[in-house]
Every structure is written in structure tokens, then in C-alpha cells.
Amino acid sequence: MTSITKQQYNELRRRLLSDKERLKKQLDSRDETIRDASLRDSTGELSAADNHPGDVGTEVFERERDMAIEEALSEELDEINSALQRMDEGQYGICAICGREIPYERLEALPYTAYCVEDTPRKDISDDRPVEESVMTPPPSGAGINRQRADGKFDDADAWEAVEDYGTSTSPGMSVKPGQDDYKKDV
């Protein structure tokens, strides 16, 4: 057992139970039919063909954001359930890695933790950047070091000149230009 007082232990248990109920209510209140529905069903649209691609992109973003929030809530609920189980087994407040006591201050800040500060698993954020950044316009002065390295690459002001050689829908290879009805002559 740890040196946590009975009063502190009861307060932490009460907080865990309170947080568990709050998370369960949040997860239950989320509309499962929207989450499991197709994009067409969730938006109420018969077709996405007449929507601007930006509108569809916004809807997809909103759905993915909601799914990420739901996943985070579920993970936190799982951690709380694990902490309550450790309490029932008499292992609460003991680091799962080194076996040392977790200070009360840490448990007070993060009641469901199973690790002391030294043994907390790392959650590294990737330094990978989107490939598009390798051809972006020069960064403004004072921008971060990663953006400064891309200085001098493709300038979007010259974008038309770069793609013009590939032709357009009205290039000579096309027998019909927009607005003409030449295609009806072949019928």
C-alpha cells in the first residue's frame, strides 16, 4: 500500500467515479447513427455531386474530428476503469513499471495514471511534414527553421507557366472548344 491517507484515497476514488460517469454520459450522448452512417446519410443530401468540394471536405473533416474526440474519450474511460481496478486490487498509486510509489501530487493531477513521472510512456509527435511543403513559396522572415529550409523552391506565382506545357481542355488536340457544338456533327 502507499502512503496516501484514507481521505486522499477516497477523494481520488470519488473523482475517478465522477469522471467515469461524465465520460459515459458524453459517449452515450453522441449520436451513433451519425457515426455509422454514410456521408450522404449524415448530411441528408441525395448526392454530393452538386456540392462544392470544399463543402464535402468540411463535412469529412467534421466527422473525422468527432471520431477523434470520441476515441480520446473512450481511451480516457478505459484508463479510469483500469485505475478503479487497480484500487480494487490494492495496486493503485504504485508505478506499473518500477514498482515505486506514485506521489500524491501526481495522482491528484492525473488520478488514473499508472506510472510515475520517470516511467511514463512517451507519446512522440512525428516530425514528418506533408510532401507539399517541399514546393511551397518562400517563407516569411521569422518563420520556423523547417520553413526556412524550403526557401527558393517552387513559387506558386509561376504555377501557370509550369503547367501550361501540359495543355488544357481546349488544346489543339481537342476537336471541340467550350461553347461549340461540333460534337453534334459527328452524330
Topology:
Blueprint: H1 6-29, H2 32-36, H3 39-43, H4 53-89, H5 104-109, H6 145-149, H7 159-164
Helix pairs in contact: 1-4
Walk me through this protein's architecture:
- It comes from Paenibacillus solani.
- This is Conjugal transfer protein TraR.
- By secondary structure, this protein is mainly alpha-helical.
- The protein folds into two domains: about 5-120, DksA, coiled-coil domain (Four Helix Bundle (Hemerythrin (Met), subunit A), Up-down Bundle); about 130-165, no CATH class.
- About 45% of the residues lie in helices and about 0% in strands.
- The chain contains seven helices and no strands.
- The protein has helices at about 5-30, 30-35, 40-45, 55-90, 105-110, 145-150, 160-165.
- The protein is elongated and about 85 Å long.
- The mean pLDDT is about 75.
Quick description:
With 187 residues, this protein is mostly helical. It has helices spanning 6-29, 32-36, 39-43, 53-89, 104-109, 145-149, 159-164.
Strand content: under 5%
Low-confidence stretches: none
CATH topology of the largest domain: Four Helix Bundle (Hemerythrin (Met), subunit A)
Elements, N to C (H/E): HHHHHHH
The portion of residues assigned to helices is 40-55%
Largest sheet entry: none
Let me know the number of strands.
0
Give me the secondary-structure category: mainly alpha
Give the radius of gyration. 28 Å
Distance between the termini: 89 Å
Top-tier CATH class of the largest domain: Mainly Alpha
Give the CATH superfamily of the largest domain.
DksA, coiled-coil domain
Number of helices, where a helix is a run of at least 4 consecutive DSSP H or I residues: 7
The CATH architecture designation of the largest domain is Up-down Bundle
The total tally of domains equals 2
Overall mean confidence score, pLDDT: 77
Shape: elongated
